[in-house]
Amino acid sequence: MTHLCLDDLERAARDVLPGEIWDFLAGGSGAEASLTANRAALERIFVVPRILRELTGSTTEVEFFGRRAALPMAVAPIAYQRLFHPEGELAAARAARDAGVPYTICTLSSVPLEEIAAVGGRPWFQLYWLRDEKRSLELVRRAEDAGCEAIVFTVDVPWMGRRLRDMRNGFALPNSVTAANFDAGVAAHRRTRGQSAVADHTAREFAPATWESVETVRANTDLPVLLKGILAVEDARRAVDAGVGGIVVSNHGGRQLDGAVPGIEMLGEIAAAVSGWDGELLLDGGIRSGGDILKAAALGASGVLAGRPVMWGLAAAGEEGARQVLDLLAVEFRNAMGLAGCDSVSAARRLDTKVSHHR
């Protein structure tokens, strides 16, 4: 079947995934206001295209931390990808490698991080702060030894948000899917009515990160450290002062604080506040097309993270489906960039934007 946009792959994934696994992937926290707002906020933004520009030799390539990427994007960290396809993270990482974009390995991956990194390409590693600091730093060292190029430190999860779909489903991991990077015991597999076993497991394992945690991670790795989950301008400024290599503006895909502002609505303010800083400024949350990537660039982002759509492709058709998602984003972004009169991502970052208040 020909998929012409990511919505086609979303429908295909929903058709094949069991209901509770679809809810685990698609759902947000609380009433899912932030989840819904992420898309609504992106849809309100319009770019002001330029005309009669020279487009010969145009390119969508960028550099992240001194190395080429074919698109200004990386695959976002998503936990337990073997829920969506038997090959899980290995298939998604191969698709990212072939697409020429970084793939972010999750702390809660269902395949050991070393095996995922061995696929090649541009692996990054996403870190959750664990109750045992030594275990957290051990994960950082393992990622560094495995060849990962950056640490994406998620800092908006002192504990997991109340994800009501999972709670209503009494969601638990099947025995065939585990947290492969550490011994998780049985907590994530114990099904209890009205509770999420995954949330129970993370409550036992995770600890709230602090600015001291950020400094500890930076002091224990030579890799650039990106902070994922920043929305406040003041926090962005403090992150720059702390010497991080990147900021990911994100409300965690609407899965943490329900009512948190969409990242795209803070992106422009944060970009202005950190103007002149040489780190990476990425947007996460709600990216569903190449046009969305263009909007993020126009508002000052050096790139985006896309997560759920890659999982739609993985669920629908394994590695080939994930590759289709990334291919579609590449085609759409090149098309949008050219139609906006841009021959490079740098040119796209100079576009003006307008916000529509019409529904």
UniProtKB/TrEMBL annotation:
It comes from Amycolatopsis regifaucium. Its cofactor is FMN. Glyoxylate binds at residues 128, 163, 252, 255. The active site is at 252 (proton acceptor). One of its GO terms (molecular function) is oxidoreductase activity, acting on CH-OH group of donors. It comes from the Bacteria. This is 2-hydroxy-acid oxidase. Transmembrane segments: none annotated. Belongs to the FMN-dependent alpha-hydroxy acid dehydrogenase family. Keywords: Flavoprotein, FMN, Oxidoreductase. Residues 1-358 form the FMN hydroxy acid dehydrogenase domain. FMN binds at residues 77-79, 126, 154, 228, 250, 284-288, 307-308. PANTHER family: 2-HYDROXYACID OXIDASE 1, S -2-HYDROXY-ACID OXIDASE-RELATED.
